[in-house]
Amino acid sequence: xPGLLYLAIAIVGEVVATSFLRASAGFSQLVPTLVVVxxxxxxxxxxxxxLQTIPVGIGYAIWSGAGIVLISVIAYFVHGQSLDLPxxxxxxxxxxxxxxxxxxxxxxxx
Length: 110
Description:
By secondary structure, the chain is mainly α. The protein contains four helices and no strands.
């Protein structure tokens, strides 16, 4: 269970850091830049801890898939990014893939 908790923290850190990249304006704005640097530091630290118990391919698939979907949702609400039907279908497929890996794949067994 700690591996999944570490992975969740890594995902949240990545989503926060990525959300502040735009506001950092090419790392010219101090506070958003600090959020990005600290966020990615937290992300990679906890992702490395998660990989002690979760296979790297499975961990990376979950981390990147969840990050893509969460960042897209945040971009929709915060930045007004439009999500058309193909984007929504693609994100649905990503979520379905993450669920299939977690629920049915023997590769994710510890």
